[in-house]
């Protein structure tokens, strides 16, 4: 479904990704693990069109998407739920969700999607008329995920959904991610919580200093000595 | 007392005009984050076009309002697309502001070249007739400005709250990167926003031309006042611009009478400096969004 072939990217003169290869198959849950600064967020931002690759190819459903602008990437069916939530603070939760369904493809089915998404997030339903900026961090993360689902994406990318949240909220976030995975949507997940992420994922990539150093099934990576030492502290 | 009430009426009516000019300015500031120094010159262009339409085609200035709104929208779109957008990625954000200053100077000199320094008075065609309410008088033209001010601000408010495009515009102002992730084409939003801002000025031009004569520097007076309104109301706030416009209209009217006509600008700009010193976010300013 999604293929990154020797993708290089960075900011200004600084190269962050030194030619990475990643594939995500339809219906798969794939994760990228790695230390802070390894390039995980840059990888997602490059796929989303926010960072332009300097070399390599990104294809989605057989089409090159590496030169598209962010809104064109969204229109193809790829949605990024960004790190740090990035809600529209002075808009109501309802309007934030409506913005999630901005693409013409999603707009026509907004009412139906809204019902489906609210079933996943009963707590969000109670907050629909509040300003997004007035919610707690955990609630904001739930709205950010709900907003991402409103686009009815074919590929949903999560960037650090549990970052900065209390342990009990982290558990709720992972429960929601699991329920989304169960609906069959293809997921590319970047998370610091390596143990839970690898348990959830079909396959994983280990990214170190902008290069993929290892790839295997989630279960196999969990058993790997290097992964256990470097990321699980075992 | 009657004088006072009459002055308040005059001030509110003038405020309607300031509101139309200021909402355009505050939209452009709040969404594109651009101080548009050419805003007044767009008004000036609109006023000359009104004069041309009335004197050459024999049309009533108010009949010219809809086509002027359209023409100024297109001019705004072209300015954003071909002058400001190429500068969007410039290393220094001030480059865009200097571009609007340059555009302003260019338009003033273009007007000087074409029309000279003479004043061009648009025929007032009944606009200067007055309605009397007991002891009070209101010019028809002023009443029209006031009503149009309310309608424009109300319509823009509904547009921003109720439509997909309006929501996308607000989203872009609040978080540009997140708006892109929702599928919003931010460059297109900027183009439309500048177009709307300029279109407001097109309406203002048709309304003000029968009352003030057009000259190359006519925009400066109105737009300097509009800058005060925008700062007073809170930069980027629609209803702030409306309330601010009415307040400045009142200050204009009352200070011209009770202090001295020549000093009203001193009062207004004194107020401007006081706002900047003591409440830089204005009356309704939320401060900057998350960016």
UniProtKB/TrEMBL annotation, chain A:
Q: Which Pfam families match?
A: ABC_tran
Gene3D superfamilies, A to Z: P-loop containing nucleotide triphosphate hydrolases
- Where does the ABC transporter domain start and stop, copy by copy? 2-234
PROSITE patterns per record: ABC_TRANSPORTER_1 (PS00211), ABC_TRANSPORTER_2 (PS50893)
Keyword match ATP-binding: yes
CDD domains from the UniProt entry: ABC_TM1139_LivF_branched
GO process annotations (BP): L-amino acid transport
Q: Which InterPro entries match?
A: AAA+_ATPase (IPR003593), ABC_transporter-like_ATP-bd (IPR003439), ABC_transporter-like_CS (IPR017871), BCAA_Transport_ATP-bd_LivF (IPR052156), P-loop_NTPase (IPR027417)
What would you give as a GO molecular function for this chain, any one? ATP hydrolysis activity
- Keywords, ordered alphabetically: Amino-acid transport, ATP-binding, Nucleotide-binding, Transport
Q: Indicate whether Isomerase appears among the record's keywords.
A: no
Q: Which SMART domains does the annotation name? A: AAA
What parts of the sequence cross the membrane?
none
Say which family it is in. Belongs to the ABC transporter superfamily.
State what protein this is by name: Branched-chain amino acid ABC transporter ATP-binding protein
Naturally occurring in which organism (per UniProt): Teichococcus aestuarii
Q: Which gene encodes it?
A: livF
Automatic annotation (TrEMBL), chain B:
- Provide one Gene Ontology cellular component: plasma membrane
A GO molecular-function annotation: transmembrane transporter activity
Keyword Ligase in annotation: no
One Pfam family this sequence matches: BPD_transp_2
| Top-level taxon of the source organism | Bacteria
GO terms, biological process: amino acid transport
The portions of this protein that span the membrane are 12-35, 65-83, 95-116, 136-160, 189-212, 218-235, 242-260, 266-286
The membrane topology term of the UniProt record is:
Multi-pass membrane protein
Alphabetically ordered keywords of this record: Amino-acid transport, Cell membrane, Membrane, Transmembrane, Transmembrane helix, Transport
Q: Which InterPro entries match?
A: ABC_transp_permease (IPR001851), BCAA_transport_permease (IPR052157)
Tell me the compartments it is located in: Cell membrane
Its family? Answer: Belongs to the binding-protein-dependent transport system permease family. LivHM subfamily.
Protein name as it appears in the record = Branched-chain amino acid ABC transporter permease
Species assigned in the record? Teichococcus aestuarii
Taxonomic lineage from the root: Bacteria, Pseudomonadati, Pseudomonadota, Alphaproteobacteria, Acetobacterales
